[in-house]
Design a protein that fits this description.
Shape: rod-shaped
Structural class: mainly alpha
Oligomer: single chain
């Protein structure tokens, strides 16, 4: 073979050699990747619910301070504290039901 024919043959198969080195990763289809995404979402949800619970406790404290002995206002403040406990408790119960230590993974 002449040098020109070798160069032509090399140039013909060069794209196949370059494509053989390409690393194409599949989309998220494996279960561990999916569960890690779900865990991140649950962690964000749990953080959001903790923030909501703190706000509910502050509102309940304000209601207790401004109740001035009015039974209806004290009852409303007590209900607000129950809502704060539910906002924290539900994710913990769900997390324990699914076998995780906390609401996240």
């Amino acid at each position: 073979m002449r040098l020109g024919a070798k160069a032509l043959l090399f140039a013909t198969f060069l794209p196949y050699v370059a494509l053989a080195q390409q690393d194409v990763s599949p989309p998220i289809t494996t279960l561990p990747q999916l569960t890690s995404k779900i865990c991140v979402a649950v962690d964000w949800l749990f953080t959001f619910l903790i923030i909501i619970a703190i706000i509910f406790v502050l509102i309940a404290a304000f209601k207790y301070l401004t109740a001035a002995g009015d039974p209806e206002k004290v009852k409303s403040a007590s209900h607000t504290l129950v809502y704060a406990a539910v906002a924290v408790g539900v994710p913990l119960i769900v997390g324990n039901f699914f076998g995780t230590a906390f609401a996240g993974c």
